[in-house]
Amino acid sequence: MADLTYIDTQIEKNGDKLTEHILGQLKEKLYFANEKYNLSNDEVVSIIEECIKAYEKSLVDPGEAVGTVAAQSLGEPGTQMTLNTFHYAGVADINVTLGLPRIIEIVDARKDPNTPVMRIYLDEDIRESREKAEEIVKEIEGTTIESISKSMKIDVINMSIVVELDTYKMQKQGLTLDDIKEKLYKLKKVESIEDEDNFLTLKAGDVSLMELRKFFNRVKSHQLKGIKNVKRALIKKEAEEYVIYTEGSNLGEAFKIPGVDITRSISNDINEIQRVLGIEAARRAIVDEIRKTLEEQGLDVDIRHIMLLADLMTMEGEIKQIGRHGISGEKSSILARASFEVTTNHLMKAAKFGEIDSLSGVTENVIIGQPIPMGTGNVKLIMKK
Amino acid sequence: MTKKKINILDNEFVPEHTILTEEESNELLQKFNITYDKLPLILETDPVVKIIGAKYGDIIKIVRSDSPAGKSVFYRYVIGEDAKQGLEEDLVDEIVEEEPTEE
Known about the structure:
heterodimer; A: Gyrase A, domain 2; DNA polymerase, domain 1; 10 strands; B: alpha+beta; Eukaryotic RPB6 RNA polymerase subunit; four-stranded mixed β-sheet; globular; nucleotidyltransferase (chain A); DNA-directed RNA polymerase subunit Rpo1C (chain A); transferase (chain A); EC 2.7.7.6 (chain A); DNA-dir_RpoC_beta_prime (chain A)
């Protein structure tokens, strides 16, 4: 059996040929294999050599057209993905956009995704308590007037709005009549609020019928509790802890709630992540979301292609879409942009301003039939005099 | 209720960001044989940039840990919101009016 120090020295010798992470794993596995299979010194050396060979083989060659390969590697599984958006992903009842529509949403850097969802983890000391989880749900789940009323009417004769409150629902949300009145007074144009039994009568002063109708809608959706944008919150038990999933996302506000673990809680709204956690977190979220979407569809794409896409989208400090309002629209080559979308616009504009195309990219060289500046075309031959 | 202390740098999704000294910045540019305008960018208004106090012109070193090969290093150059708009304006100025040639 090889000496542990021998393994250590051999690994040190090759320290510069592999990454730290891999060396760590290699060492662990060599120790394990050493115990189990009783390796000889030579065997240890050849294992390390094989590992180095495998690593070097997996590296990308300089000049490789990684962009094209990544595009194809993501496009091909795209043709195998479902087009229907609905699936009950994980938590019962909460719909999440999946499959191709989700990928399109991510790559188009949509500012308002179809199904924003937050995954909220709780602090260590409370994550195993269902009651604490429910407390936090009460704080984040949005409660509107509509949700705690039995009925709501516009009283045209008295130009007022009559709300019949549901005391059971009020109690469940921990709201008293005074709480509700207090919140309602914050509404613009509210002149008076009277209550009798469980009926609230709101007057908005001298207004037209149309204005009264608008006022009615505002009262209906006026938020009494919870954080903005969060419509529903559900608790799910995962391993030994309780996790909260929300329909609707407001990461900034969610973080402020005591008990919420800000180290792990996250959202699937990429733009929100950029605003709250920065561009690097957004990049990681893009990778994660695309990877998860592909995985859910049963497709396996090397993460490096996804990483390249995410890096490209976040190259300039903010999330840019791949389409013509983002990356593709900012290429310096006129031919490249013209061949992508809105052909005539680009050609006309270029002609008007006398723009010059330096033909240094891939697309334009393919158009004119020249070798592309990648791979083989990356190198020029010169004659030796 | 006491106000909760939130440090977004603690979130798993946010990697380690450090500001390079002028010396380190120059070394970096030399190592890759580039000028600062070739680097990827990060905005001055980025939440992390604001916390670590980086300013327009700084280079930030980011250590990510999500690569299959372990840790990977990335660099970003800090620009301001106006710097971007400034760039676009420069391009418009470059459209020079040509004098009509003599008949």
